[in-house]
Input
Amino acid sequence: MADFQHITSFIWTVADDVLRDDFKRSKYPDVILPFTVLARIDCVLAPTKENVLKKYTELKDEIQNLDGVLKHESGYAFYNVSKYDFKRLLDDPANIHKNLIDYINGFSENVRDILDRFKIRNSIQALHEKGSLYLLIQKFASDTVNLHPDRVSSHQMGYIFEELIRKFNEQNNENPGEHFTPREVIKLMVNLMLAGDADMLAHNHIIKTVLDPACGTGGMLSVTKEHIVSEINPNADIRLFGQETNDETYAVCKSDMLIKGDDRDADNIKPDSSFSRDGHPGMKFDYMICNPPYGKSWKKEEDFIRAEYDRGSAGRFEAGLPRISDGQLLFLQHMLAKRKATEDGGSRIAIVMNGSPLFTGDAGSGESEIRRWILENDWLEAIVALPGQLFYNTGINTYIWVLSNRKEERRKGKVQLIDATNCYAKMRRSLGDKRHEITESQIREITRLFRTFEESKIVKIFDATEFGYRKITVERPLRLNFCISPERIERLLSEGAFERLAASKKKGDAGAAEVAEGRRQQDLVLSVLREMAGDEVYTDRQRFEKVLVAGFRKRGVKLDGAVKKAILSALSERDETAPACLDAKGMPEADPDLRDTENVPLAESIYEYFEREVLPHVPDAWINESVTDQRDGQVGKVGYEINFNRYFYTYTPPRPLEEIEAEIKGLEAEILVMVKEMMG
Output
């Protein structure tokens, strides 16, 4: 097998050697990616090229549809009936543009669809106009870019495409949320997804379906199928389904499926968005696996997604909508909507996401409600925390979620957390941000920990409800004193209701008259208050209101409700020694500035918790019983979060002061030596 990194480096240099000065760097992938695919297909078809041409010449005038015959001759689910290939194109430099178009047109329809997704004809025309077409074909026709499967495996080809795309995106600072999944992470995900299913998958004539709704270049689908066929049952009929919104990666994925010889799988790879243009409507799948884009906005599809949410259980997003800046949990809901019913065998899911879906969102938020829906329905089997710096263009921490609606008995009502953050080996050579990898032995160990389902230092098992809490609102009484002092009267000038007295939406004379009248009222209110000014401080709001109203009535001024409220606000100050302000029902009024919340574990009574944890510190507090959960109607909003740090935190004591002091003195001595050397 060839060294895929050597081939990738060569193709990368082709971009600079051929396209520099004639194309913007942002346009390099528009040329290089389709020609890499074309070179792969050209190498694949080379051994049977003459047989296909011979059969085509023999039968083209006798049989209308030669598709099946020519696929048989090529040995693949595609073919080409043009007399040209990369080598022959070089024999006629003067007509290379026309002949290359003839070559493209000679492909079977499924390959033309792939090349059209790349918009390769536009690139060919641009290369022709710049005089670069011959040189580019010459580079890709060289032995260095021999991409035949005997020399470059599907795995290696996947790495080549992903490394090229990664480098192009990195260079152009594009698609920061798209992270190609390293093969060792995919292997671990597949192991976890299939754990315990070996006996079932080993049955004769077994047929299973696998979906990846954000399939990229198809790595997850391919590894799943290869694992089942090579390690469990070579006769298993594994049918792959995928969807990919990016045209280039869709084309790469579909071409890879075709080259592997299964046009059925290739036909099951669909373009466009899994949300608004579901490529597999109404279908249910045995297995689903995915690495959705992280932190990617769904604003562009907001109208459709909200309409789907409004359909409730008839749609795919019934649990809730995450914040619009991150659609990871939409992908998870999409997958959950495509499970087979438990009575039909159920489904298992593996999805890798960043930390946001674990804890982002307060009680009642879309994210929390989605977690609640999953946990209360007992669909979450496990979450595995992965090491950092595993992915090619991000160093963030990631987590594999394993979900199922056919849990084995011992897992029912339970969730397993595995802290595999230290299960990695440092790579000898970094690939972008990827500096760590998970070894085969580590994959086996993590899988073993998952399957044994026993607690250890890095494995914790919880009841599903232990991740839930009820968020109660804690109120404390409003305590104020009041004084009609000059300083407090001045505050009235910035009170909104008082300012609006001298404002008008009318235009012209009517508006001016209204403003003038408002200013007159302002002056009148200020005049009355200044006449009433004094040093007396009131701590009883009801008594002060009576004094205030009586003072204005005595001077023949009737207070508007909003203005009265503004005056009370300006003349008041918070006073912890004052009695509580009472509402119209004689109950203490809550101070919004002192309002707080408490998260009470679901298994505990909110009142017992409040009495134990809150009242000893704030004896005048009470629970606001008007704040209730939208689903169960009980006091407090229910929330769910999974905080790995809380469960796997290890306390590290601070270093002794003597040690820190000695280190500082040592650094000071080093600095002095350096200064002396600089000073000569």
